[in-house]
Amino acid sequence: MPDPYAMILAGGSGTRFWPLSRNSRPKQLLDLLDSGTLLNQTINRLEGLIRRENILILTNAAQEDAVRHLASSLPPENIFAEPARRDTAPAVALGVGLVAARDPEAAMMILPSDQLILDTAEFQSVMKDAIATASEGGGLVTVGIKPTWPCPSYGYVERGEAAVLDGQELTHHPHEVTRFREKPDAAQAEGFLASGNFAWNAGMFIWSIPTVMAELQRHAPELGEFAKELQESPDVKATITSRFPHLTPISIDYALLEKASRVLNIEASFDWDDVGSWISVAKHLDTAGDGNQTNTQITPIDSANNIVFSSQNKHVALLGVDNLIIVQTDDAILVADRERADEIKKVVGLLPENLL
Question: pLDDT tens digit string along 277-322?
């Protein structure tokens, strides 16, 4: 079996965690929990599974310098910057083309850079089985997270029967994917959870280059041709610069996974948190007083259920306030209703340029 590859997607905007995050420093480039940046954790999680020279990173121009600094353990030629934002399908096609140019028979995984996974051993166990499945022609493999609550903010994967695979001895056996379901309303999410055969779509994909190239050519020919052009290009960076900005923006789910001949799903046995908002971060902070969650020293008086985060370890006093998010950096302070954490991006849209 050829050595596998990994493409880490490390772009994205810095809106959810303002004022700590900025356009040039989004979530994956932050050390939110004093345990290293999420990008570095993603790279380190692959140690012993993927060779460093086989790890590629795709980011964007605004974040390229920071990514190169954080990922200095990787060969510099393995870090690429998108010349334009084009959603996940063009980004994935770019990764497929880059890996195909290096080894057209390899298996590869697509990994987000902004998820918190602490159990590295179990993560690698799942990924080894996913790589083995993909390498034996088992179709396009996805990793699903067993839902713990009826979350309406995630996409879902409906899992069917256990997959029949020749000669495979796996610890984590895949199931056939019946269909992908977009973000549901609250009632639908309750139904998904009750049925027991749905998984959260974690955005992790594993496939062999021959399989994914064939599926792209069949179902997303524009992206298939782009990947093929990259594979054969004598100047990869020039091809990316000239071709990528003209690709149709579309998600990989819509462009490929919902149409592919065979998609399998392996349910994750590792811990997982997409750390999607300050509410998610708060679960990993210390608790002080009446449900206040903080990364710094606080003095709470008649104050409950607040989230307090200081990038400079400032002491914060709370008097008679409940359910607030308070975030302090060297140049800005956010005070928000905890119930409106998802609306912080609205604030970012009204800020002066120097705070973006």
Answer: 999 999 999 999 999 999 999 999 999 999 999 999 999 999 999 9
Spatial separation of the C-alpha atoms in residues 243 and 226, rounded to whole Å = 8
What is 5-267's CATH superfamily? Spore Coat Polysaccharide Biosynthesis Protein SpsA; Chain A (3.90.550.10)
- What is the value of pTM for the model shown? 0.93
Q: What is the pLDDT of residues 71-112, one digit of tens each?
A: 999 999 999 999 999 999 999 999 999 999 999 999 999 999
Confidence of residue 325 (pLDDT cuts 50, 70, 90): very high
Task: Dump pLDDT digits (tens) for 181-219.
Answer: 888 888 999 999 999 999 999 999 999 999 999 999 999
Using the structure block, give the residue that is written with the tokens 């028979």.
105
Q: Where are the domains of the chain?
A: 5-267, 278-355
Q: Which residues contact 117 (CB under 8 A, 6 or more apart)?
A: 41, 45, 123, 270, 271, 272, 273
Q: What is the mean pLDDT of residues 167-185?
A: 89
What CA–CA distances, in Å, run from 353 to 18, 73, 328, 356?
13, 33, 18, 5
User: Do the beta carbons of residue 244 and residue 83 sit within 8 Å?
Assistant: yes
**pLDDT of amino acid 342:** 87
Radius of gyration of the chain (CA): 21
239-248 contacts, C-beta under 8 A, 24 or more apart: 240/80, 240/82, 240/83, 240/94, 241/83, 244/82, 244/83, 244/84, 244/86, 244/90, 244/94, 245/83, 245/84, 245/86, 247/86, 247/90, 247/93, 247/222, 247/223, 248/86, 248/90, 248/222
Structure tokens at 194: 């009750």
Residue recorded with tokens 């159990």: 119
The torsion region of residue 11 among left (phi > 0), alpha (psi -120 to 50) and beta comes to beta
Q: What CA–CA distance (Å, rounded) separates 204 from 114? A: 12
3-class SS letters over 174-212: CEEEEEEECCCCHHHHHHHHHHCCEEEEEEEEEEEHHHH
Neighbouring residues of 77: CB distance < 8 A, sequence distance ≥ 6: none
